[in-house]
Amino acid sequence: MRVSPVRWGLEFGKLGKIYGQYKFTLAPNEQKVFKGFWKDATVKVLKNTWLDRWYLWLPQVVILYFLTDLCVKMNHEAYRKKPEEFINEGVPLKSTTGSEEISS
User: Fold this and answer.
1) Are 62 and 53 in contact (CB under 8 A)?
2) What pLDDT, on a 0 to 100 scale, did the predictor assign at position 60?
3) 0.70 exceeded by the pTM?
4) Which of 16, 74, 81, 103 could form a disulfide bond with 90, CB atoms 3.0-4.6 angstroms apart?
5) Eight-class DSSP state of 91
6) Which residues pair with 94 in a beta bridge?
7) Which residues fall within 8 angstroms of residue 101, CB to CB, at 6 or more apart?
8) What is the C-alpha to C-alpha distance for residues 31 and 37, in angstroms, rounded to an integer?
9) Contact criterion met (CB below 8 Å) for 103 and 86
10) Per-residue pLDDT reduced to its tens digit, 64-81
């Protein structure tokens, strides 16, 4: 079994030397708080979910549009008055003397 630096009793800040890796950062008070927020939060999200994957949602939207249009037309046809049911009814005429209706 290989003995690790932790088993040797070293602290986590002094486990070993790593050469050639550098990390530069800005202090928290020097950074812009919302740098790139709108671009990352809105533009990238919309691009990744809607524009790049149009082939997933566009056919469904087109089918839903035509299906809704068909349902509205069928509903209109089903609930409209059918003229052939009212063909034998006369046109009501208003009398000049009273409120009685006279059918012809």
Assistant:
1) no
2) 96
3) no
4) 103
5) P
6) 101
7) 92, 93, 94, 95
8) 13
9) no
10) 999 999 999 999 999 988
